[in-house]
Amino acid sequence: MYTEFATIYDRLMDFDYQSFILILEKIWKDTSPKTILDMGCGTGNMAFYLENKYFVQAFDLSENMLLEAKKKLKRTALFHASFLNFQIQESVDVALCMFNGFNYLSSLDELNQAIFRVAENLKKEGYFIFDINTYYALKYRYGNDILSEDIEGIHCIWKNKFFENERKLFSQLNIYFSEKNQNRHICEKQVQTLFYVSEIFRLLEQNHLRVLGLMDLETGKKPKKNCSRLMFICQKIRNRAES
Q1: Nearest of 56, 57, 128, 53 to residue 97 by alpha carbon
Q2: Can you say whether the dihedral through the CA atoms of 236, 240, 242, 243 is positive or negative?
Q3: pTM for the full model?
Q4: For residue 16, how far is the Cα from the chain centroid?
Q5: Rounded distance, CA 22 to CA 14, Å?
Q6: Cβ neighbours, 10 Å, residue 221
Q7: Which of 6, 31, 107, 155 lies deepest, with the highest CB count within 10 Å?
Q8: 81-91 exposure pattern, b = at least 16 Cβ within 10 A, e = fewer
Q9: Whether 133 contacts 67, CB under 8 Å
Q10: Cα separation, 125 vs 102, whole angstroms
């Protein structure tokens, strides 16, 4: 996943990173964090706006994404890893996993392993903030539909199929664009897993992470039933040795 797609990813991302980081800083303002871990950092857009104020470490599973991130980041410590095996030398004050990265894990066991890794690498009272695509998003917004969009001269077609019993959304993204007077076509296949909110709460609790609040990432408000992207604001309440 994210091979050729990495080179045009930024052109397709319509997101106000700076405004979003202001929201995050209001969440953690009382703790004055100094260190941040950006999980699944992609092309480094979050880290780009964080690295001038914090010591940022960032990783991604896609080496192509990391190559794009290296072009824009000057102070961030980048490394190649997955949600399931990452390790840093010292615990951080804040861990971020944005843009529904956890949905690309294949099972509840993998989600639990990823949350365990977060808890192991987060300081006591540190913040863990992440978002997911919800049941509503996978079934009703994307599932069993063909979506088409034109963004900055790039034509995108998403073909989606949602299997509720298997808890999987299979997507094929076809991207058509021109580059150096040549027509290009990129085909990207992705699989997302449905995780229910109650399951996520249980895994967070098992790993000593308390949910402080939930937010609809698209509206910045309290989530409703038709929320597509749900953001969890969590805090580590104790270290494993204190259990």
Answers
A1: 128
A2: positive
A3: 0.94
A4: 15
A5: 17
A6: 9
A7: 6
A8: bbbeebebeeb
A9: no
A10: 22
Strand partners, 229: 133
Instruction: Take residue 16 and report the two structure tokens written for it.
Output: 């106000």
Count the neighbouring beta carbons within 10 Å of the beta carbon of residue 138: 26
Q: Which tokens in the block code for residue 3?
A: 């091979």
Pairing assessment for the beta strands 77-80 and 55-60 based on DSSP bridges:
parallel
Chain-centroid distance of CA 114 in Å reads 12
Q: Please count the other Cβ atoms lying within 10 Å of the Cβ belonging to residue 189.
A: 10
| CA-based R_g, the chain, Å | 18
CA distance 94 to 80: 19
DSSP 97-152: E-SSGGGGS-SHHHHHHHHHHHHHTEEEEEEEEEEEE-HHIIIIIITT-EEEEEET
- C-alpha 238/C-alpha 242 separation (Å) is 6
Q: What is the pLDDT along the chain (243 residues), one digit of tens a residue?
A: 656 788 889 988 889 999 999 999 999 999 999 999 999 999 999 999 999 999 999 999 999 999 999 999 999 999 999 999 999 999 999 999 999 999 999 999 999 999 999 999 999 999 999 999 999 999 999 998 999 999 888 999 999 999 999 999 999 999 999 888 889 999 999 999 999 999 999 999 999 999 999 999 999 999 999 999 999 999 999 876 665
